[in-house]
Design goal:
This protein is mostly beta strands. It has one domain. Helix content is 4%, strand content 56%. A hairpin with a 2-residue loop joins β14 and β15. The termini are far apart.
């Protein structure tokens, strides 16, 4: 119980038990980095899977849709109990930096990218992170955390012989852990707006709950030093969710605001195929692009004043198996 409470109040830390972890269980962190020219965009995902054939991994997704899965033995994974720090093979990750040393025939990545001015999702006893009070529920299928909504990055990576300077770019960090990914979900995120310091992260998924399930969602809009939260646990409601092959229109509302989100894949968007966990192994194939756009409009319900309107560039976007059940549940 002590370990559960401690880790719930520190979402970034490893939540499993290295010595006696029993499947099904996975944990993974998601680092997105964009260089100042915005021509080089990467998602780097370290993690561990205890289901099926246990192993550690580092996945690398680039802006062209190239996705590489680098596997390491379980004993090459290490993390301390008292802080956020992850070792997967020779690769190191924490609040302050990410060091990669991947030398495989299919891909080589070497260098260190440092982080400055992290913007964590607030953690309180009543709402320890982005999941709100649901974070205290011990039987959730999948938990989610946001380590930093937006931060500066510094340093270089050499990718397949090309040196890329990320100094002056922007970064984002989140994570997932639990027994398996949801049956279906939509997720997108970007912190590249006309006005620096603005970020949107949003997801909706089928959430198993006791003997039933519901479409749970979480949206965070960070703007001018304030976090606007819309979630199932805040009482916000989805008024419209319309998904086509290339677009998503999502409107949510609470007592104070309307939030309108319009997502487009963008011309020439390339999707990479990542691996995700089910209860048996890393058997889920997740298509993600780093080239979507998100139009955001936040409006006060009383008076109709537009609090913010803008366009986010180079968004990460996943739309997974939504037609069969998720969209029907929302309707």
């Amino acid at each position: 119980m002590y370990r559960f409470v401690r880790n719930t109040m520190h979402p970034a830390r490893y939540h499993g038990r290295l010595r006696d972890q029993r499947p099904p269980y996975f944990e993974g962190w998601y680092f997105r980095i964009v260089d100042p020219t915005e021509r080089h965009r990467y998602a780097v995902i370290p993690g561990i899977i205890w289901s099926g054939r246990p192993h550690a991994f580092v996945q690398v997704l680039d802006d062209s849709g190239g996705a590489h899965y680098h596997e390491y033995p379980v004993d090459a994974f290490w993390t301390p109990d008292d802080r956020f720090e992850v070792h997967a093979g020779p690769n190191r990750f924490n609040h302050n930096e990410m060091t990669l040393l991947i030398d495989r025939p299919e891909q080589s990545v070497a260098g260190t990218v440092r982080f400055g001015g992290l913007t964590p999702w607030p953690v309180t006893w009543a709402a320890p992170g982005i999941m709100g009070w649901y974070a205290w529920v011990p039987f959730m299928e999948c938990y989610h955390g946001v380590v930093s909504l937006d931060h500066a990055i510094y340093g270089t990576l050499t990718v397949n012989g090309e040196e890329i300077d990320f100094t002056g770019g922007r970064g984002y960090i989140e994570k997932d852990w639990g027994r398996a990914f949801p049956e279906a979900w939509i997720w997108f995120q970007t912190n590249l707006f006309e006005q620096p310091g603005t970020c949107i992260t949003a997801s909706i998924a089928i959430i198993p709950w006791l003997m039933t399930a519901f479409p749970g969602f979480i949206i965070g809009l960070w703007h001018e030093g304030r976090l606007y939260r819309f979630a199932t646990y805040t009482g916000a409601k989805t008024e419209r969710l319309h998904v086509t092959e290339h677009t998503i229109e999502w409107i949510v509302a609470d007592k104070k605001y309307w939030l309108e989100l319009f997502v487009t894949q963008g011309a020439g968007s390339s999707f990479g195929l990542l691996k995700g966990p089910d209860r048996a192994e890393m058997g889920v194939r997740v298509a993600e692009t780093l080239s979507a756009t998100v139009h955001v409009r936040l409006t006060e319900r009383t008076g109709g004043r537009v609090v913010y309107e803008g366009d986010g560039r180079h968004a990460g976007l996943e739309v997974h198996e939504v037609e069969a059940r998720l969209l029907k549940m929302v309707r």
